[in-house]
Design brief:
Elements lengths: L2 H4 L2 E7 L5 E7 L11 E5 L5 E4 L1 H7 L3 H4 L14 H12 L4 E8 L5 E13 L2 E10 L3 H14 L1
Antiparallel strand pairs: 1-2, 3-4, 3-7, 5-6, 6-7
Length: 153
């Protein structure tokens, strides 16, 4: 069965906060978050991925080599409103922990939902990057997030 048989396919232009953009194939098909797994990644202060655990590699559909050295926004799904990420970055700028629900884009164009916790990594009072831990979100929180994000687009 092809992807076209399992979900609508569209092309979308994704614009990132740093001014870059790319065309991406979007497949309206959710990949279920695996039970009992934690997705963990670390980035430098600019959001460049420096560590990806195996659960992250598996869920993203990218190889570890493709992820390391790439900006974390490669996972940004076009259904995610920019204001959601503004809230994340504003919270990070204050040196605080951020939590929220995120719809991520996989390499193959499908998507998965996560409950994300992002923590600034400090050494000797200096920001050296961020650690993000993602868990399986409840279906009710996904529905709430979908409804809210639709109003913010």
């Amino acid at each position: 069965m092809s992807e076209q048989d399992t979900g609508q396919v569209r092309e979308a232009l994704i614009r990132y906060y740093d001014g870059t953009e790319r065309m991406a194939t979007i497949v309206d098909k959710e990949v279920p978050y695996p039970d009992g797994k934690l997705i963990v990644s670390r980035t430098d202060p600019q959001g460049i991925i420096t560590h990806a655990n195996q659960a992250f590699v598996d869920m993203s559909g990218y190889s570890r080599e493709e992820l390391i050295g790439t900006n974390h926004y490669i996972l940004r799904h076009p259904d995610m409103p920019a204001v959601a990420f503004k809230g994340l970055w504003d919270t990070m700028a204050e040196g605080k922990k951020w939590q929220g629900f995120v719809k991520n884009l996989r390499k193959d164009g499908t998507y998965y939902w996560v409950k994300a916790t992002v923590i600034p990594n400090m050494r000797n009072g200096e920001l050296v990057g961020y650690t993000s831990v993602r868990r399986k979100p409840s279906r009710s929180k996904i529905r709430e997030s979908e409804a809210l994000y639709a109003t913010l687009m």
